[in-house]
Amino acid sequence: MKKVILSIGFMLTAFVGFSQQVTHTVTIDLANVLEVTEGTTASQTLAFDAIADYEDGVVSESASTFTFSSNLDWTVNVKAASALFAYTGDASGATTEMPASVLEVSPDGTAFIALSTTDQTFETGTAGADKIVGATYKADPGYAYAEGSYEIDVQYTITQE
């Protein structure tokens, strides 16, 4: 009986002696990524062709849309690229120096932000892909400006928190 137990013990020792272990290290490198894409036309035109437009202002009929994606929570700031609109036309007596604040923008069409050359929070979001946000514009210049076209660039900047 002792011989049988010893034989089994030697066989088990032989199997254990053939066991080997290898460790393989896997590294995942994550980079912070963010992206903004424009979904609709890059331009908006707000036409003032009735007295009611001058009295009440004009709201863009269709919002521009943007798609935001980020692997971290994010904030989108908005600002005017310049303090004044660029003017094209025949100024006849009235001023052409229209400030950026005449134009307002809103992500939801209700809470409008008057533009300036200082970043202002436009929208915030959590990590994820394809958050679609609309930008509705409202202009209310009143009666103070000469007839013609006024143009300004609006800058949207996404940053991670």
Overview of this protein structure:
This protein is mainly β. It has a single domain (31-160), classed as Immunoglobulin-like. Helices cover 14% and strands 36% of the residues. It has helices at residues 2-17, 51-56, and strands at residues 34-38, 58-59, 64-70, 74-80, 86-88, 103-106, 113-114, 120-125, 128-139, 149-151, 154-160. It is rod-shaped and about 120 Å long. The termini are far apart. The model has no long low-confidence stretch (mean pLDDT 89).
Helix count? 2
| Oligomerization | single chain
Number of domains: 1
What is the CATH-assigned architecture?
Sandwich
How far apart the termini lie comes to 73 Å
The CATH top-level class label = Mainly Beta
Report the sheet-strand fraction.
35-45%
- As a percent range, the share of helical residues equals 10-25%
CATH topology name, in short, is Immunoglobulin-like
Q: Please count the beta strands (DSSP E, at least 2 residues each).
A: 11
Sequence of secondary-structure elements: HEHEEEEEEEEEE
Which shape, going by the Cα principal axes?
Answer: rod-shaped
As a whole number of angstroms, the C-alpha radius of gyration is 32 Å
Structural class: mainly beta
What does the largest sheet look like? 6 strands, antiparallel
Low confidence ranges: none
